[in-house]
Amino acid sequence: MISLTINEKEVTLDKPVTVLEAAKQAGIKIPTLCHHDLLKPWSGCRLCVVEVERMPRLQTACTLMAADGMVIKTESEAISNVRRGILEFLLINHPLDCPYCDKAGECELQDLVNKYGPTVGRYKEEKRKVPESHKDQIIARNTERCVMCTRCVRMCNDVQGASAISIIGRGNHSRMEPFSSESFDCEYCGNCLTVCPVGAILSRLYIHSFRPWQVDKEVGTICSYCGVGCSLVVQVRDDSIKRVIPKLGFGLNKGLLCSRGRFGYEYVNSPDRLKTPLVRKNGKLEESTWSEALSIIADKLTEIKGTSGGSAIAGIASPRCSNEDNYVLQKFMRVTCGSNNIDSLSRTGFAAAQKYFEDLLGQGITANIIDGIKNSEVVLVIGGDPTAVNPILGLSIREAARRGASIIVLGHAKGLEKFKTVQVVPPLFKEAEVLEALLVELFRAKGVRAELPFIDKEMRELSEKAAEKMDLPGFDELMKALLNSASTSIVLGMDLIQRTNGHRSLFGVAGITYLLEARLYLLSERPNEQGLIDAGCVPDMLPGGRPMNIPDFKSKFEAAWNGPIPDDDGLTLFEIIEGIKNRNIKALYVMGENPVFNLPGGPFLKDIFGNLDLLVVQDIFLTETAEIADVVLPALGWAEKSGTYTNLERRIQLQKQAVKTSRGMEDWRILSEISGRMGQKMGYLETDDIMREMAKVSPLYADLTYDEIGKGDCLWPYHGKPLRGEMNEVPPVVDAEKDYKADFYLAPEKLLFHSGTLSRKSPALMKICPEPTLKMSAASAGKLGLKEGDRVQFSTTAGSSEAPVSIDESIKDNRVFLSNNFQGSGVMDLLSFSIDEVTKAFGIEGCEVEIKKHGIKA
Amino acid sequence: MENFLLRNIENPNSADINEYLKVGGYKNLTKSLGMKPKDIIEEVKKSGLRGRGGAGFPAAMKWNFATADPKFPKYLLCNADEGEPGTFKDRPILEKNPHLLIEGMVISGYALGSEYGYIYLRGEYPQAKDILNEAIKQAYEKKYLGDDILGKGVKFHLSVYQGAGAYICGEETALIESIEGKKGQPRSKPPFPVNVGAWSMPTIVNNVETLSNVPYIMEIGGDAYSNIGSKDCPGPKLFSVSGYVEKPGVYELPMGISLRDIIYKHAGGIKDSKKLKAVIPGGISTPVLPADGIDCAMDFVSMPKAGSMLGSGAVIVLDESVCMVRVAYRALKFFEHESCGKCVPCREGTDWLRKILERIENGKGSEGDIYLLSDVAGLISGRTFCPLGDGAAGVVTGMIKHFRNEFEEHIKNKKCVVS
Fold first, then answer.
1. Is A122 on the interface with B (CB under 8 A)?
2. Nearest 5°: CA angle at B146, between B145 and B149?
3. ipTM, two decimals
């Protein structure tokens, strides 16, 4: 225990902290400029000086550790003199362009000068002149206003880990500059904007468009982009979003954001938003009224249910929609339409893996706190780049590396290139073999854990089958690190799941998790992939992860929902597609999803969707799928509606309405309206009504309220009751051995700057990353005689496209990568696929691709 | 007093290991390796050796802090970033007597439990770099460096790291940043380098001259050494005398010798028999002394009492022909150029001072400028991250204190007293 006196106030500390922190705990504010709570002390601005009894000089509070018996004064004439002097120094070269500067009103320098002075300038010399840089499309840099606190540089190096900017020059010639010179070549997290105390780094998204004090309201909500669910603040004026900013220390992201979260909000106001319902008349989508559109849907669904039965109707749920939306959709499908055919595109990744792991290791196995990653000794990264898919989770891995953890990448992860300890590159599409070999070695070293006998048995069998130890560079190092690790985190991306034998990789990961008692994290591209599973948007489970085939559960829901639920498990996503192809499914209801673009074989899907008697799409944009729908319904988007979302760590969070619009209707309200017209009244007036019902009927959401969720730490298992050990047998291994001898294979890439539908309508993200590139290793480019930026044509059996080449040092094999984010040139259209019999996800490995330099004839 | 640090430097081949061996070189290493490391430190403690870089910190105390830290490896860094204007005292050791430094470093490394040494060499000493590298090569060949020094199982490796020309890298924490490959800027202390230094390991940073004194202490013993020169800070001291004297150069003299004796007895007095105006006694960062202030003992303890500091022992002698405003301006131009930019008062203040001085020097000063200079110097002094800013402020304050009339002349009559 440390006791000290600050401004005659007794302060007692539990643990050693700086004087600055001790004062903060005592409610005493010491002025700072270079200090920031997210950063390590710098002690450059010298504003935080304090008087310490028996110390000859003034001391900087940000670096001085509080010691027992210290007597400190934070304000005195001498201290004020120092602060006034420092501020005078900072102002001599400052342009004093406050009337023009966007920071005015929230400028830390302005506030400090207001408090400490000086009131007049004594500097007669010419000020430093550095022209404002507008070369970058997103970030405006005004070096004349810069106070050289280096917060931006420290943020970029020590927290974000991008190391894209630096202070160049020395002394009074110093200035902040990106290494890429005028414009930024960085991750565009914008966290430098957050920490800049003055108007030196500003976002061009809102520059000169408003004053900080002109904001009507600030709404604390969560981000709409990925499965992390970062907290952020939406600043609104006249029902329009002016700016999205983080709040220091707020939410699981603690004040950090990524490019999508910070700059990707403009899609909300996109002119391309759907405004009215559209109905296909004479083969053309025409503007219609809500009442006409809803009646057409209700009548058609009733007709199909009557003639072909509920099983001829299928629904696709949305990982972009809230728990409430998804809950209402599955209830609508199950009770109103009489069909368990409800699934989502999460089946192709997150949901498939999640189910596999929960079946094997018990519910809640993936419910791990992101922040905990940084305390791991080993982080094993498999099947994706966390820093692109879930950037804020990626930051925890980088922090773990800084704290001395071994970061092991199986495959490649560009964002971890500077942080990885070992990279193990599996032979092409043989990740499952590597994971199995790893599991066998670990099993041999660790022995039977004897908690889940069927997994032990399976591992023993694998180990008996396995012959030689795998001879792969880095493999031994990986083994050693895992065996010596007391705390392991495994971060699994979706790339390995999207394989014909993806389940084998999943067993490998499950086994390693089990043997090492590791924490497992599933990367999640969409904000509510976990939530839609929990809400019941899976064909075999009711809300709360209750299996359909246990009659007790089913009857309880039937009673609560006031209607029968079909007995059999419904169809999974690809079974639904198969059903559409075979004309067994006659109506497809798509909520907030774009299967034609987001699934492989788009042209094929487009074709068979023509078989449907009714295709309904509700979305905020006219997507590729909406374009071929019979009825299109405009929904409300992020910031326009409220609801809860469940992130990848299974934290339930509240997304709040920030702006009002008459453009569309909430997804749940649309469904509720149709349900009413079909004779099944749902009776929801607001989302609260849905939450109350969920809290009553879902064993997982028992007793949950918005109040509790709003506090931000609504963590698994809430007050709910998870099921454990539902399975006692490992699903059989199905395998298709194949050799991969082609020169190049095409694979999907996940981009940091894009998510797809939303991001491509966000001008800022389109400026940062305007077009797709074909990413390949330096070796592949060399083989093809290509250099960075060369345009190439490439084709697969499914189609062809063109893009410029981008060389990625982290890629070590002969795969080439294309994203699925840009209209008309998504990778999915070029991929053929098969289905993993166990997880029912698609397998897209081994897609051979021919690449030619643009303009060169074969 | 017989030269030790500069022993044999008249020999044109003094940097060669064989010449060094001829005058008894490396015998102190052999002797030291027969001793226990802690006994060597004890000997250094008895000697009263103080760091020769400028601060005068007791060497043995620093060493004891470092050995008390249980972390390994420990690094021994030789600060050869001799950048203080007026200072060139280490240069003869580096260029003429490199084996003395190497011997001192090996003995020190052995005493400290350090197996890795680096000489952080000033960027502007290219000849020294070649000479040191050649000397290190020779020392390896003769097993004075390596994994098994003189067959005693002692390991010490040494290499030269050349700076890029920043004055601030003479500050030990900035030196460490630089040797780690980062921009040279000082670090917060604590933690001190003896605990968390280069690559976060215990690190001892000693000046070239300090380390070169170690073999001498081992040769004559700590007690004998402590009887040389001043009682509180004994030993031989190198003084680099420059400016308006008959015989500028580096002199090895006992610590505590009077400044007057250095100038008149050793450096031959003022050039062309002109009148002495002022002396900057320890490098540009130390406050100027007027002509009547030179009867002071040149050591770390006495100089502050005389109104200045010993600093690096770089005696800059200025005669009656020198304009003190110009000296101040030239000094501030240096400080402004060398300010690393980390802290506000130094970064902005040195530039401002330089601009005011430039104005006064060019006859564009105005009334109130002397007050402004003093005030701005006051806003810097005691408020900077490291002593660089204090040095800059001290020059201005000192010049105004002793030569205010020259500033007034420049401002009021737009002319210089000496022209």
1. yes
2. 70
3. 0.95
